[in-house]
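Entry for nicotinamide-adenine-dinucleotide complex. Fields follow.
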Amino acid sequence: MEIVVFTGAGISAESGIKTFRDSGGLWEEHSIYDVATPEAWEKDPQLVLRFYNDRRKQMESVIPNTAHKELVELERSHNVSIITQNVDDLHERAGSSNVLHLHGELKMARSTGDESLLYDYTGKSIEFGENCEKGYQLRPHVVWFGEMVPNLVLAENIASKADVFIVVGSSLQVYPAAGLIHATPPHCRYFYIDPKAEPINGIANLNIIKEKASTGVPKLASELAKL
Ligand code: NAD
C-alpha cells in the first residue's frame, strides 16, 4: 500500500520547535513578513540571516519525537512517502527513507544568483557578505511566502499514487501546499491528525483525529500496519 504523509510544523512541536499559527501568526516572536518574504530579504538581509541562523541552531539542539519515529516504523509494512512543509530535518534524522521538502531545508544555503548551487550549512551560520563560488550572496534554502514552490509538481506526482493520505500537524493555510490533498486518486482514504483538525472542503471521507502527533500517529500507524 502507498501511504503518503503530509506533515506540517505541528509534527515537530513536541520536539520543541514552535509552529507559528500557535503563537498568533508569529514565528519565534517575529512577524513572518519581517523574516520570511523576498521583501524582508530586500529590506534587511542581516535580520533574515540571523533569524534563520537561530532556527538552524535550534533545530540542531532538538531531536525527533515519537511521531517522526512511528512513520519510520510504518515503512516495515508499507511504502511510505513523506511530503513535508517543514524546513527542519527531523524526518531524516528519525530515519525516514523518502522525504520531500516542499518549503526547502534549513540546513542548506543557496546562491542568490544560481539556485542550483546548494551548500550544506549544518553546524554553521550564513553570514552577510558570504558568497557562493560565483560571487553571489548566500541565502537560506527555504521557500519564502510569495515565492514559487519548485517541488510542487514532484509532490503532486507522489500524491497521485496515494492509497492513504495522512495530514499531520498542519493548519492547511499555506498554499499551494495545502491543496496537495486534491491531487490524490478517487479511491484514496484520508486521515487528519491535529488537535485543531477540521473538515476539509472537497474531501468527503476524511477521518479526523483530534490529537497531538505523539499520540495520534502511533495509534493510526498501528492500525495501518495490520492492513
Ligand atoms: P502552522 O504553524 O500553520 O500550523 C501548525 C498546526 O500544527 C496547527 O494546525 C496546530 O493545531 C498543529 N499542532 C500544534 N501542536 C501539535 C501537535 N503536538 N501535534 C499535532 N499538531 C499540532 O504550520 P504549517 O501548516 O506547517 O504551515 C506553516 C509554514 O511555516 C510551513 O510551511 C513551514 O515552512 C513553516 N514552519 C516550519 C517549521 C518547522 O520546520 N518545524 C516550524 C514553523 C513554521
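NOTE: The longest strand covers residues 104-111.
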